[in-house]
Design a protein that fits this description.
This protein is mostly helical and 56 residues long. 5% of the residues are buried.
Amino acid sequence: MSDDDTSTISAWTERLLAQAPGLSADQASQFVHDLYFAAQRTLDREQSEADFARDE
């Protein structure tokens, strides 16, 4: 994980905790981490599909 990823996850974890103070910091961090990397995988897949379609 890059420093940018860590910084982004930390920032979004803080925002989530501000909106859902009942969550523990660990729960919030894990949720943001999972969501961030799921979104990154989706973007990577979409980019690969677009590259493939362009090459055909």
